[in-house]
Prior knowledge:
- By secondary structure, the chain is mainly alpha-helical.
- The protein has helices spanning 3-30, 33-46, 54-60, 62-75, 112-115, 126-129, 152-169, and strands spanning 47-48, 51-52, 79-83, 88-90, 93-95, 100-104.
Amino acid sequence: MELQQILVAQEYIGIDQKSRASFWVVAKILFDKQLRKAVKEEVNAAWQSQHLDVKSLCANATVLDRIFHECLRLKAGAMMGRKVPAPMRIGNKMLRSGGKILIPSRQLHSNVSLWGPDHHNFAEERFAKNKNLLKHSSYRPFGGRVSLCPGRKIAKEQVVAFVAILLRRFDII
């Protein structure tokens, strides 16, 4: 697979990430009364004179932030592209030097030694209990190092703005 094909694939996957994250964040908020109440309070605090302060919402909405990250951990399908630096064996596969590989983040997000035996369950509070999870090498919803998505902050702003507008404009009980 050529590098250009990898970049195009990552672009399409990245576009899908926002839609997928938006869906799951809204779904989790709608079906959990306590989360909905907490997020509504955070969202209401970010509205200033009928205008949404997205930067403030991203900086101060801790519950919404945890929901966003847990939804990405459980539902994201990002991949990281790498060039094989030297011949190496992974399992029974031999990788040639100069070859290109795609590494799915999904398996990292299911790492039992980091996320625990309940890794398959939605538990937004895990990000409150351990602040270092966001920087851990087993959490890569937007890639990492050389393939870190430059649009990750904009994507988050779009998702939280969508949620804020939805909660503001519609009376969700």
